[in-house]
């Protein structure tokens, strides 16, 4: 039986759509469709039925998916066992990442990992919330960076670090509008707000036993934290952002903390991975590295990835 066809079948089954599987795994729809037809012809059964835009497994397809996962696991175990015999760490790690901060958070850690294990190839896929909360779709990932407390009971959650939000603004903005000294004074300032699916994100802040929720008057709203940070650096207002996400901008003086004693409660950042009977050397090395990375982060050199100083060109007439 064609292992490539089985792999394509699993990808479509997990994505529930040829189009979604094509986008997620960067494979031509024609290839996925051909491989599935090839399997159906060989098995003499239909593996999917269409329901609107979704491709839903038939009873035979659901049964075959169970065995397909076992076949893939067996192949992974065989590769891992042979790799272990060579006493090195190699192969491909498929990593999922959630949240808006994957570009900075995930890139930094993976770059450092590749510096230590250059023979390991990395395939990173950013997951939408809808994809994430369909656990049956996640079997193909070695691990997933997850922001928050996971509810996926079939997965091991290894905490990597904590992150909390605070308020940040550019020196230019504070020079023009003054620096707030209390949360109440934030009502006199412009905010740059993140838009959640349910509405604008409030600024939940805690200082000792006190806590407050601020709903700022917003000069700009967006559902992308990089845009929020860009507008903050450009002097458009005060932004509510995680500390690690603003480190480089603060070091360079492009942003400064506002009301630094007020921050959000800490949110855990976890590495999720399926429970496995046999752990490959590459993933064993990866999870160990991830756990230790944030304990010794200052010892790693990684390139900065930040919003540079925003300059305003002068146009001559």
TrEMBL record:
Keywords for this protein: DNA-binding, Transcription, Transcription regulation
InterPro entries in the record: LysR-type_TF_proteobact-type, LysR_HTH_N, LysR_subst-bd, WH-like_DNA-bd_sf, WH_DNA-bd_sf
Record-linked Gene3D superfamilies: 3.40.190.290, Winged helix-like DNA-binding domain superfamily/Winged helix DNA-binding domain
HTH lysR-type domain location: 1-58
Highest taxon listed in the record's lineage: Bacteria
Annotated GO biological process: DNA-templated transcription
Record keyword Hydrolase present: no
Protein family membership: Belongs to the LysR transcriptional regulatory family.
Name by which UniProt lists this protein: LysR family transcriptional regulator
Organism the protein comes from: Aestuariivirga litoralis
Lineage start: Bacteria, Pseudomonadati, Pseudomonadota, Alphaproteobacteria, Hyphomicrobiales
């Amino acid at each position: 039986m064609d292992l490539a066809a089985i792999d394509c079948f699993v990808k479509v089954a997990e994505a529930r759509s040829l189009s979604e599987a094509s986008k997620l795994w960067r494979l031509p729809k024609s290839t996925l469709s051909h491989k599935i037809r090839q399997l159906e012809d060989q098995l003499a059964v239909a593996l999917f039925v269409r329901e609107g835009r979704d491709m839903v497994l038939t009873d035979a397809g659901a049964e075959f998916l169970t065995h397909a996962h076992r076949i893939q696991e067996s192949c992974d175990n065989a590769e891992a066992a042979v790799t272990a015999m060579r006493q090195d760490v190699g192969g491909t790690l498929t990593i999922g990442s959630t949240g808006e901060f994957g570009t900075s958070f995930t890139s930094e850690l993976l770059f450092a990992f590749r510096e230590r294990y250059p023979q390991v190839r990395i395939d990173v896929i950013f997951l939408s919330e809808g994809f994430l909360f369909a656990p049956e779709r996640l079997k193909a990932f070695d691990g997933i960076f997850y922001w928050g407390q996971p509810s996926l009971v079939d997965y091991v959650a290894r905490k990597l670090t904590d992150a909390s939000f605070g308020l940040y603004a550019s020196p230019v903005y504070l020079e023009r509008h003054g620096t707030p000294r209390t949360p109440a004074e934030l009502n006199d300032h412009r905010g740059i707000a993140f838009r959640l699916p349910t509405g604008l994100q409030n600024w939940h802040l805690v200082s000792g036993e006190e806590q407050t929720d601020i709903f700022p008057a917003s000069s700009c709203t967006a559902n992308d934290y990089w845009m929020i940070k860009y507008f903050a650096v450009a002097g458009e207002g005060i932004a509510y952002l995680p500390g690690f996400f603003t480190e480089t901008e603060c070091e360079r003086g492009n942003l400064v903390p506002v009301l630094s004693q007020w921050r959000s409660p800490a949110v855990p950042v976890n590495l999720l991975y399926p429970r496995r009977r046999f752990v490959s050397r590459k993933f064993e090395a990866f999870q160990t590295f991830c756990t230790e990375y944030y304990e010794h982060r200052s010892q790693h050199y990684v390139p900065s990835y930040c919003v540079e100083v925003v300059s305003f060109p002068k146009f001559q007439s």
